[in-house]
UniProtKB/TrEMBL annotation:
Keywords: Calcium, Cell adhesion, Disulfide bond, EGF-like domain, Membrane, Repeat, Signal, Transmembrane, Transmembrane helix. CDD domains: Cadherin_repeat (cd11304). It is found in: Membrane. InterPro entries: Cadherin-domain_protein, Cadherin-like_dom, Cadherin-like_sf, Cadherin_CS. GO terms for molecular function: calcium ion binding. It comes from Anopheles maculatus. Pfam families: Cadherin (PF00028). One of its GO terms (cellular component) is plasma membrane. Residues 2-53, 54-158, 159-261, 262-371 form the Cadherin domain. SUPFAM superfamilies: Cadherin-like. The keyword Transmembrane helix applies. This is Cadherin domain-containing protein.
Amino acid sequence: MSGDVSLVKPLDYESVRSYRLVIRAQDGGSPSRSNTTQLLVNVLDANDNAPRFYTSQFQEAVLESVPVGYNIVRVQAYDSDEGANSEITYSIQNRDDGMPLAVDPRTGWIHTTKGLDREEQSRYSFQVVAVDGGIPPKSASTSVIVTIQDVNDNDPTFSPKYYEAMLAEDQPPGTPVTTVTATDPDEDSRLHYEITAGNTRGRFAITSQNGRGLITIAQPLDYKQERRFALTITATDSGQRTDTAIVNINITDANNFAPVFENAPYSASVFEDAPIGTTVLVVSASDSDVGINAQITYLLNDESVNGLGANEPFTINAQTGAIITNAKLDRESTSGYLLTVTAKDGGNPSLSDTTDVEISVTDVNDNAPAFKVPLYQATIPEDALIGTSVVQIAATDL
């Protein structure tokens, strides 16, 4: 009756964007008369559709060596609205400033903003939000997972860089010396260890075991030829990246030789009135080792020639080998001594040599003659001839 055109059902711009209505006006006469006109109704778009992503999750892998600005994966959403209502802007939800990834707000490309480092972080998982331009705006989100693939961009690193070891020269081949360790943060890094310098005469070998390098003796050692080795150990990864370490090995002298007395056996003489502390003779032994293995100590085990077993008359200087009188001597009691001298080195176990030292005691005139009896008596007839034996007296001197 009023001519007002009104909605009877909801409109949907995305289904029908315009309506062409034919309106007829008719009077109440008889016969009635009428006329028509057309009404064009254009439906205006409202922001009644939220953006939608083509998939709920995007996944992509990228090498850690890609340059800054490299496009990794494109996230795309669509919006059924039109105009500003369908203009989508992309952003990463709760993005950290340190994150090396960003999204282009218009195109949706996920790209790098700084260099990637798998060793620092190998996987990024985040939400990308798509917001349309409507008022009020509508949004949607999707999950993005970016996996960083390894590139051999790290050198092996020894820790520590210097090693010390000590070996006795008599250690057999195959004896472990020390273990060196290098690490490589790259993925599946298999390190190969090699002795690249300092291995004089090929005395040592190295094998790779469980990511470490085990150094062992390969050839018999000889202290007299080499007393110190400075081995350069090189660790190489599959990409020929390397690092080096130094292993200092000190060789200690093994107790290979026993002391040997010079000019053995020994003999000497000493006057029986020699004062205590008189040096009778000096014994000397030599040792072909060096260091503590050649440090000789002299010991004295003596017994007298006549079997009395006297230990007191003599002593020996443990360092110099000087045999010294330790008591008053008396040739009339003991005319000689047979001493046994032992020379021991400082090795472990210790080696030794022994020699005999014969000492004779030289007489001095320290005893007066003594008559056998204090008084002699005899009788003789007065007519005894001259030359007749009267009595025989006797004296002795020790």
